Amino acid sequence: MAGPFLGCDWGTTNLRAWVIDGDGKALRKAVFPFGVAKLAAGEAVRLFRHEVRPGLQAEDLPALLCGMIGSELGWMAVPHRDCPADATVLARALAEAEAGRAWIVPGVKCPGLAGAPDVMRGEETQLIGWIAADPAHASGVQLVCHPGTHAKWAVIENGRIMRFVTAMTGELFDLLRRHGVLKTEAPADDAAAFDEGVAAAGDGSALASRLFTTRTRVVGGGRPARSSASYLSGLLIGAEVASLPGLLNLPVARVALLGEPELCRWYARAMAHTGIVATLYDGEDAAVGGLAAIRAGA
Amino acid sequence: MAGPFLGCDWGTTNLRAWVIDGDGKALRKAVFPFGVAKLAAGEAVRLFRHEVRPGLQAEDLPALLCGMIGSELGWMAVPHRDCPADATVLARALAEAEAGRAWIVPGVKCPGLAGAPDVMRGEETQLIGWIAADPAHASGVQLVCHPGTHAKWAVIENGRIMRFVTAMTGELFDLLRRHGVLKTEAPADDAAAFDEGVAAAGDGSALASRLFTTRTRVVGGGRPARSSASYLSGLLIGAEVASLPGLLNLPVARVALLGEPELCRWYARAMAHTGIVATLYDGEDAAVGGLAAIRAGA
User: Fold this and answer.
1) A125, A128, A133, A135 alpha-carbon torsion, rounded to 10°
2) In A, which residues are within 8 Å of B120 by CB distance?
């Protein structure tokens, strides 16, 4: 389908919306604090019609939505599609949310650890956008890391999402920073302490022991308490970076980092410690590109 | 010193007190909900004099206290003693809390991970009691695991605590069970789900990824939500058991499990998966024995 449309990446904490033209270019943009985690039953439809559409002067445009809005907490539960997945597969599996006017991109699933399927909702659209952005991304085997509350490491092969693994690194950071013996109100902006944490992560094993050093390095080791959050962040990200490639059973020399630019920079910093060459890509650009690629395939 | 005394294991969440005779036998016992975490400044002294001593009819007995009561949150901050440590070393380092009437056993420290000292307060007394309980425990190299909020794995050599490593497994379990996406009100009593978690822990690497399976095995894997806490417990304990021996750089075939009997049984179950032969010892008996051994050396 051609012509402008309303694209939304509607996640757990907020909603990003764009009017996207036929060439995949964002003409207008808005961010709403309507995260799926905060929605009451039936509220998604109302907010979409009375806030999102008018807010972007997009009352009459067809709309394509991705993210947690397709879960049981959002507008409607859209079943995950199995890997391998690409723009065509997802375009064929859109769920109609408003008859003839709005569709939801399904999430993606694949066999995961411990015999349970691993899942993503929203990241698949950014991955599709990343693949569409450069013919080189659609060729051979590529490893893409999407950091976040639940980081996703995805293996892309000839332009298709083949498999992925989740690491709940961001959530662990959040929990440990806010509760328990490692609790800290320090900002996570100290690069030297971050590097110290990455080094302390070692090969990523024995995390429950390594985490305790966040406390002992301050209490008995004389390090300033204000460096604790940065150290903890480096330790958790370092452990993820050290162990995920092995979990995927892939020899890793290059990784594409896709997502929120500041977080991606911290991941790139941790990857540099282990000799991985990381290239950074903006997650928002990829979301727009992915929505456009899936819309074009529909 | 001989004759009966008042022994206390005064920890973060509660206080266990015994009148112990000259042979190290507990004559009377009481448990008080006066955990160090809940004490206001100066409250320890008052509770000890007006509740603990009268409660055990021990107004006139000399007293020996161990545990977090010797931290800045307790009665007074008693510096940790360096390893190697045994009953004699600790007996010589007692801190006088009430002149001529009450003493506090110092905690123990040793070089830990990431260049910071690792520390314990309270477990050292149980370890001393365990060593004193059997001449075989005081001979050769022994590995003792003390499970808990902050589990301690200690290497005992010829009756001395040589070094140890902490794993904050119990705290992670508590945080993940109460907050975030893995939150569950299920009881942790399902042995089959615990075993499933131990198996999912693998070699203990990539914990942030393996943890996520606690959710995916229910959401996409069809397992009952009521088994989540047991699975999570097995996963965390399994990861600890799989990775701690390597961290201590010890070939491990036998481990003494010392602590709260029910928790020790779960640890033994996880150890059986990896071929470790575990022997269980009651932590409370060991605390009484340790207080008596340290008292005898003073």
Assistant:
1) 180
2) none
DSSP codes, B3-67: S-EEEEEE-SS-EEEEEE-TTS-EEEEEEE---GGGPPTTHHHHHIIIIIHHHTT-TTS-EEEES
Instruction: Classify A45 as helix, strand or coil.
Output: helix
Chain-chain contact of A165 with B209 (C-beta, under 8 angstroms): yes
Assembly ipTM:
0.93
The answer to whether the CB of B148 falls within 8 A of the CB of B260 is: yes
Q: Which chain A residues contact residue B204 at CB under 8 A?
A: 205-206
pLDDT digits (tens, 9 = 90+) for B230-287: 999 999 999 999 999 888 988 778 999 999 999 999 999 999 998 999 999 999 999 9
State yes or no: cis peptide before B62, omega within 30 of 0. no
Q: Cβ atoms within 10 A of the Cβ of A111, count?
A: 11
**Tens of pLDDT, residues B142-180:** 999 999 999 999 999 999 999 999 999 999 999 999 999
Partner-chain residue, chosen from A116, A151, A223, that has the shortest CB–CB distance to B221: A116
- Measured CA to CA, the distance from residue B198 to residue B219 in angstroms comes to 20
CA distance B92 to chain A (A): 22
pLDDT of residue B252: 77
Nearest to B9 by CA among B293, B297, B286: B286
Element (H, E) at A26: strand A26-32
Q: Which amino acid belongs to residue A272?
A: A
| Length of chain A counted residue by residue | 298
CB-nearest to B204 from A178, A196, A205 is A205
Dump the DSSP string for B81-139. Answer: EESSB-HHHHHHTPEEEETTTEEE---EEEE-GGGSEEEESSHHHHHHHHHHT-GGGGS
Instruction: Pull the structure tokens for residue A3.
Output: 């012509």
The residue of A73, A209, A236, A267 whose CB has the most chain B CBs within 10 angstroms, and thus the best one to mutate to test that interface, is A209
Contacts of B249 (CB under 8 A, 6+ apart): none
Mutual angle of helices A207-219 and A228-248, in 10-degree steps: 160
Q: What is the three-class DSSP state of A292?
A: helix
Distance (Å) from the alpha carbon of B176 to chain A's nearest alpha carbon: 8
Structure tokens at B258: 């010392």
Query: A245 contacts in B (CB within 8 Å)?
Result: none
Q: Under an 8 A CB cutoff, do A112 and B213 touch? A: yes
Q: Residue B251 burial (CB < 10 Å; 0-12/13-18/19+)? A: exposed
